[in-house]
User: What shape does this take?
Amino acid sequence: MKIHEYQAKDIFAANGIPVPKGQMAASAAEAVAIAESFGRPVMIKAQVHVGGRGKAGGIQYAENAEAARVWAQKIIGMDIKGLTVKKVLVTEAADIVSESYVGIIIDRAQKKPVIMVSPAGGIDIEEVAAKTPEKIFKLAVDPIIGLKSYQARDLAMKLYSDFNLVRQATDIIMKLYDTYWKIDASLVEINPLITTPNGKVVALDAKINIDDNGLYRHKEIEGLRDLDAEDPSEMEARDGDLSFVKLSGNIGCIVNGAGLAMATMDLVKFYGGDPANFLDIGGSSNPQKVLTAMGIILRDSNVRAILINIFGGITRCDDVANGIVMAYEQLKPEVPIVVRLTGTNEDKAKIILKKVHLESADTLDNVVKKAIALAEIEPAAAGGEK
Amino acid sequence: MSILINKKTKVVVQGITGRDGSFHADQMKKYGTNVVGGVTPGKGGTTISGIPVFNTVAEAAAKTGANTSVIYVPPAFSIDAVYEAVDAGIKLVVCITEGVPANDMLKVYEYVKSKGARLIGPNCPGLISPGESKVGIMPGTIVAKGPVGVVSRSGTLTYEAIWALTSAGIGQTTCIGIGGDQIIGTNFLDVLEMFEADPATKAVVMIGEIGGNDEEMAARYVKTKMTKPVVGFIAGRMAPPGKRMGHAGAIISGGSGTAKDKIEALNKAGIPVADSPTQIPQLIKQKMAGIKKGLKAKPAAKAKPLKKSGKMAVKKPNKTASGKVPGKTKKGGQKRS
Assistant: This one.
């Protein structure tokens, strides 16, 4: 789960990591009030879950409260890479002497948290990694022993030579590591970590991603989820305990198991079709899930055919068939549906499905080909279904 | 022969009185797995499907000689269950649970390693050595004994591939689902090493997916060290970057972990990659025919491409399995988990 910069900065501040004073505003009027209360120049920063805000014009300097109004008006409602800005962070503008980078992520191959620092901050770290990898310094931390002060100091010394700054950065790296564990983060990042003319080290930006699997023990963080920033269908799917990712094609897919769901949509593409989504109904076969899944897919007006592919193992095909019948009767879909159910209780499932007139197929390849053929038929030519 | 589990494996089921635990304990026993005990704190002294229940893994291990455990407890308790099993001296721990926090797994991984034990999973279907033992949730009805090892990050996609093999008359030594999470106890590389060392395994099917670089590391091993042929499949060619595709580990991040990169890495290592799971048996047959004729040193066998329209190019199931469909056996009473 992603959280916004203003939320991440609140978490930093609560854990002793210095951040500039700031507050979130959802309107120009709020932005003005905040800028006035600070009584000095501010930055207006778009709060969206996408990188490259600065380049898109979503981060602006405002000399005074009036300028804050102008920029907040422009930025709120702005489109950045397909996302609409609904909120801005109004934060004290800082004088910057130097910009560095500090981040912590899981290294999947080493199976350790890795701390990365770079004196080349303020730009995309992946760009630094590609162009000047010698400017990135990494430390894989033993997760059981944890981070030791000397290790954090070694990293801080890669950023600064002045020990006044080294000491502050060491403290920040230690606290960032503790925060990473405390909140079950999968990524914490300060880019840039700046130094000011009066010798202070400050986190000018903040990025935190939380491990979804850790959310159950952080209700306070679950509450930070920005419902505006999420696709409504993806939210409905999550509430219904389904994994759903919207794509741009016209063949809706309902599959059990994430790997098989991916393989099914790959195969749709391979045979010349275009999948409308990824959807995994999971290991259980609660008929309600099929109903929810079908509802989400039918709301997508691009969808011209629905493909249902179930490999019954633990999932029982008859349960899924009951869900299909329920969905068919309640939702009365006008798009053609092709079903392939194989495995546990397949025979029972076939009898249940006789109640409704659906296309069926016996193999993975055939169900995909049939769905593609059905999606290509013009709705009018599909014959009097309406 | 098989790897990791066989007829002698003595299994203890952690969380045996739960909905999933009790159902699968029974399924494993019916398959022929030597399930010697179960563990649920506070339920010691009772039995489930004739299996004695203990309060602790240590007690279960001491009284039954269990050497393997399988975990069916909710995420909040599953990490503790792994530590308990390892501390009780269990050498193979299979964690089925989905939803384990990745940072917890970082610590567990180090600890399990330090105790000389092996963890499979979490978020995995477990493993099965056909005709010998199954530990986990894989349906016993789709496998057959034979010469091919199967290793995968997925569940139902693995079943699809196994069923394709079985339908084509190709049996398996052991089928292992290593799990769909970012941090897992056993990776492709570990399993490939075991298949390489197992005399009964003549070829391997490796089913990967987007995210991480485990497939790339495995490909390097296949190219430099492995003598047995490997056939691959990679799921997620259509996955958009930055989106988690169901599995916690199935995410393309910062442009790395794409299906394209993985397929290229596999091809470079001489591993043919199937376009559809149903194409896997054909690739295996070509690779294995290559060994017999002494052609193994030749570059990767090219599969006959699937026709993109019309009839499938893939052969129909042969007579050994004709008409039979997984789970369609007379017992056929698998309940959902």
Observations:
- Chain B has two domains: 1-123, 138-321.
